[in-house]
């Protein structure tokens, strides 16, 4: 790819980031760093949803090279090559529409990369000046490393022709980026306005264990869901709750869950048998029972604590909607809008589980600080 095209792509990423950066800079909010963090959370959530749309519309190879499109910075400049590819194969993978979907996804990703670099730069400069904990650069540095790794997997997604394990890891990294940004936002909220001591520490510790377990099972279910999507196994079971008329249909776990292989192929290069797709879908569907059990218990315990009740209600609502969209995807023969909603629901579960985790962690810290201060105050008196 020519240097001029790379420069144009870099400028596009800066242009995408300018609007949110300008809005934060011109806002009346005194704590602009905190505001920028939550803007980054919002945009990362949007990117994950649009990434799901890109995957579900088969637009991942809309531009078959990376980072540009046929070596150009945008599909306008590559129109001749795209038109020729579309004429040869009208349904794709390369069409004008799919090329634009893929490049818009890349532009958004580059814009978020610029915003994360702005967060890192601001935190380093302010930390050196003030040593204020809100600007401690550890998490922003981790975010920068994370987004670089995510960019590498984005490139491999294209160059390795949508290999399922690469696409699934790309999805998980996107969710991890959202979680890390949300955790940083939680830190900024806590430092700006620490919560008052509240609740029983024993109950909080039990909730924290459940919250960590919830994060683990959500991650596992997203990985399984990504594996379903990247292997095009969504309709391998076209009824619910049975699968092909059976509770346990014939399944090929060996080929279905062999990680390193081409899309639609076994490790030996043969076409993937349908029973392998059934296995992929069946495992994702049934692991949802584990997710509901763990999150249901977490919601029940957190709901009983006044300072966690709001988070618990939101988590319960999103979990319920997520179950509905998952079932509707099967019943309604994979409508695009509902499939995108299902992807968005997974991102919301990650965001809410992360928020609940940091809320419980910081509440325990506040309670411990109060407990430690009480004997010291008594000694003084």
UniProtKB/TrEMBL annotation:
The protein's annotated pathway: Porphyrin-containing compound metabolism
Keyword annotations: Cell membrane, Disulfide bond, Heme biosynthesis, Iron, Membrane, Metal-binding, Oxidoreductase, Transmembrane, Transmembrane helix
Annotated InterPro entries: COX15/CtaA_fam (IPR003780), COX15/CtaA_HemeA_synthase (IPR050450)
Topology relative to the membrane: Multi-pass membrane protein
Domain of life: Bacteria
Residue spans crossing the bilayer: 6-24, 36-56, 107-127, 139-159, 165-186, 207-228, 282-300, 312-332, 338-358
Subcellular locations according to the entry: Membrane
Coiled-coil regions listed in the entry: none
Keyword hit for NADP: no
PANTHER family with a match to the protein in the record: HEME A SYNTHASE (PTHR35457:SF1)
Protein name in the entry: COX15/CtaA family protein
């Amino acid at each position: 790819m020519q240097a001029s095209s790379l420069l144009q792509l870099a400028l596009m990423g800066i242009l995408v980031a300018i609007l949110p950066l300008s809005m934060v800079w011109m806002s009346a909010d005194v704590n602009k760093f905190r505001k920028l963090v939550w803007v980054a959370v919002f945009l990362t959530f949007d990117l994950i949803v649009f990434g799901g749309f890109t995957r579900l519309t088969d637009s991942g190879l809309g531009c078959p090279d990376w980072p540009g499109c046929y070596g150009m910075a945008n599909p306008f400049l590559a129109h001749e090559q795209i038109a020729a590819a579309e004429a040869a194969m009208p349904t794709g993978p390369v069409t004008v529409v799919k090329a634009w979907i893929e490049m818009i996804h890349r532009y958004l990703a580059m814009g978020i990369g610029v915003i994360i670099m702005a967060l890192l730069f601001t935190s380093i400069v302010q930390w050196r000046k003030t040593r204020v904990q809100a600007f401690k650069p550890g998490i922003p540095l981790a975010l920068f490393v994370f987004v670089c790794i995510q960019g590498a997997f984005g490139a491999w997604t294209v160059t390795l022709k949508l290999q399922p394990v690469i696409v699934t890891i790309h999805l998980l990294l996107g969710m991890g980026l959202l979680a890390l940004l949300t955790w940083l936002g939680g830190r900024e909220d806590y430092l700006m306005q620490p919560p008052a001591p509240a609740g029983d520490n024993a109950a909080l510790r039990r909730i924290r264990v459940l919250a960590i377990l919830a994060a683990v099972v959500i991650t596992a279910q997203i990985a399984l869901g990504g594996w379903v999507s990247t292997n095009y196994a969504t309709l391998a079971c076209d009824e619910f709750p049975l699968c092909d008329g059976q509770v346990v249909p014939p399944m090929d776990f060996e080929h279905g869950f062999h990680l390193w292989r081409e899309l639609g192929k076994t490790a030996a290069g043969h076409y993937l048998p349908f029973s392998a797709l059934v296995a992929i879908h069946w495992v994702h569907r049934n692991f949802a029972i584990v997710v509901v059990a763990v999150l249901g218990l977490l919601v029940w315990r957190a709901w009983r604590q006044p300072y966690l009740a709001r988070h618990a209600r939101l988590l319960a609502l999103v979990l319920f909607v997520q179950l509905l969209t998952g079932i509707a995807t099967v019943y309604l023969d994979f409508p695009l809008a509902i499939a995108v909603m299902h992807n968005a629901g997974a991102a919301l579960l990650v965001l809410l589980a992360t928020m609940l985790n940091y809320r419980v962690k910081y509440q325990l810290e506040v309670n411990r600080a109060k407990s430690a201060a009480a004997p010291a105050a008594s000694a003084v008196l």
